């Protein structure tokens, strides 16, 4: 055997397949079609004459040959990534800061793992959170007060690059003894005579209002509180109903404090995007942080679907 057919893309493909658990998600991570990703795997299998993973296993189960190649990938890929970052720094003297503005009260469940991974890879970049909830995080980009904004996806703005990160399911939360608790799902009209319990934000910042209630001409009374646990306490005592991402309340649902219901018969999804100024969208450490959000969120959050790169 006088040549080795492995290149870094093959190794990255194996890691993506393991970490994502499926061919479709791995293809999204790698920015490939499923066919192209399968071709990478088949090329290796054909060369070595051995299967690398069990087809139709969920999550993916690797064969001994696949596990051996993954051992190599886990050494080589991080080393190459670190070398690339070192060379970028040598060329550009890349240091700086990453100031993040958010308009989401429930971002921290998926933001902190990405921050931890980023700090390990870019220790010389100072990362900071613009204090408090921001009603107009994109405005902070225009003002030069933030470098990255995490927002609900919106219409493009001049000078701003919007990159979709992932879609997620919203769930309606009701008391376990609420009359709605036995319903298969809630529709727009179910909210008409209910108090909607939310964080203290404007209507335009609420996905449930923008995606479902406003188009239906429904404007229920609202009660607000800053804390997720306070929202759930009000829900559990029949003071109203709430709508949140499943990830924000997963631990409470496991304890059966409240009941979660789908919204509409097909489920209601919202989307999180990363926004940067156009002149910063290709800054190496900002681009990598955005990639890390997608990678870590895919591993840790329930009911999300990674968005295709733009």
Automatic annotation (TrEMBL):
Task: Give the matching Pfam families.
Answer: HTH_1 (PF00126), LysR_substrate (PF03466)
Q: Which PROSITE patterns match?
A: HTH_LYSR (PS50931)
Gene3D superfamilies (UniProt xref): Periplasmic binding protein-like II, Winged helix-like DNA-binding domain superfamily/Winged helix DNA-binding domain
Q: Which InterPro entries match?
A: LysR_HTH_N, LysR_subst-bd, MetR_PBP2, WH-like_DNA-bd_sf, WH_DNA-bd_sf
Q: Where in the cell is it found?
A: Cytoplasm
Family annotation (CDD domains):
PBP2_MetR
- Regions annotated as coiled coil: none
Q: Which UniProt keywords apply?
A: Activator, Amino-acid biosynthesis, Cytoplasm, DNA-binding, Methionine biosynthesis, Repressor, Transcription, Transcription regulation
GO cellular component, alphabetical, reads: cytoplasm
> Boundaries of each HTH lysR-type domain copy?
6-63
Q: What GO molecular function annotation could you give as one example from this UniProt entry?
A: DNA-binding transcription factor activity
Asked if the Swiss-Prot or TrEMBL record annotates the protein with the keyword Calcium, the reply is no
In Gene Ontology terms, what is a biological process of this protein? methionine biosynthetic process
* UniProt family annotation: Belongs to the LysR transcriptional regulatory family.
Protein name, UniProt field: HTH-type transcriptional regulator MetR
Q: Which organism is it from?
A: Pandoraea pneumonica
């Amino acid at each position: 055997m006088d040549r080795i057919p492995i290149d870094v893309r093959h190794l990255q493909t194996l890691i993506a397949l393991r970490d994502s658990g499926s061919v479709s998600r791995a293809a999204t991570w790698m920015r490939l079609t499923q066919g192209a990703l399968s071709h990478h795997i088949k090329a290796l299998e054909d060369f070595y004459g051995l299967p690398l993973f069990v087809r139709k296993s969920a999550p993916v189960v690797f064969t001994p040959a696949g596990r051996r190649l993954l051992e190599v990938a886990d050494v080589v890929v991080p080393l190459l990534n670190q070398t690339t970052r070192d060379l970028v720094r040598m060329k550009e003297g890349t240091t700086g800061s990453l100031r993040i503005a958010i308009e989401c009260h429930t971002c921290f469940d998926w933001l902190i793992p990405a921050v931890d991974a980023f700090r390990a890879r870019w220790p010389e970049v100072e990362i900071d959170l613009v204090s408090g909830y921001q009603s107009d995080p994109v405005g902070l980009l225009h003002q030069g007060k933030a470098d990255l904004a995490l927002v609900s996806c919106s219409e493009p703005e001049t000078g701003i690059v919007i990159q979709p990160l992932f879609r997620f399911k919203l769930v309606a939360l009701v008391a376990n003894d609420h009359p709605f608790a036995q319903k298969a799902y809630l529709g727009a009209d179910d909210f008409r005579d209910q108090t909607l319990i939310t964080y203290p934000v404007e209507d335009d910042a609420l996905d449930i209002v923008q995606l479902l209630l406003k188009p239906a001409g429904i404007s229920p009374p609202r009660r607000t509180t800053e804390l997720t646990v306070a929202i759930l306490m009000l829900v559990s005592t029949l003071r109203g109903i709430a709508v949140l991402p499943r990830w924000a309340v997963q631990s409470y649902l496991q304890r059966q404090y409240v009941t979660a219901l789908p919204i509409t018969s097909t489920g209601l999804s919202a989307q999180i995007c990363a926004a940067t100024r156009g002149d910063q969208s290709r800054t190496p450490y900002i681009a990598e942080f955005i990639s890390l959000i997608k990678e870590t969120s895919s591993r840790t959050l329930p009911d999300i679907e990674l968005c295709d790169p733009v």
